[in-house]
Amino acid sequence: MNINFDREDKQLVVEITEEIDHHVAEKIRRKVDNEITRYMPRKTIFDFSRVSFMDSAGIGMLIGRYKMMKLIGGSLEIVNISETVKRILEMSGINKIIPIKTAI
Predict the structure, then answer these.
(1) Parallel, antiparallel, or unpaired: how do β-strands 43-47 and 75-79 relate?
(2) Owning domain of residue 20
(3) pTM: predicted TM-score of the whole model, two decimal places
(4) Scanning 9, 12, 79, 94, which has the fewest C-beta atoms within 10 Å of its C-beta?
(5) What CATH number did the domain enclosing 32 receive?
(6) Which H or E run includes 31?
(7) Tens of pLDDT, residues 27-68
């Protein structure tokens, strides 16, 4: 699994480079939680430009990171999503609590 992190000006960008299913979501959760705890960003941005598929485990992972960011007084947003992933996020209603943007 490959996740890239970019930290700048209290902003953490998480670039995920594969499909997000149950097994991958748990690994992402652990790595991202570690980075958030260490860096304490004001904003975390998930870059989904290389994610072509995500299931309900991915939605749960995002909601958990959203709650974590709220606990530390920060925010979370999602950028660069494919139409397939966008439909999944819209059906789940996650787009009503986590902003989805076209670019960083």
Answers:
(1) parallel
(2) 3-101
(3) 0.93
(4) 9
(5) 3.30.750.24
(6) helix 22-39
(7) 999 999 999 999 999 999 999 999 999 999 999 999 999 999
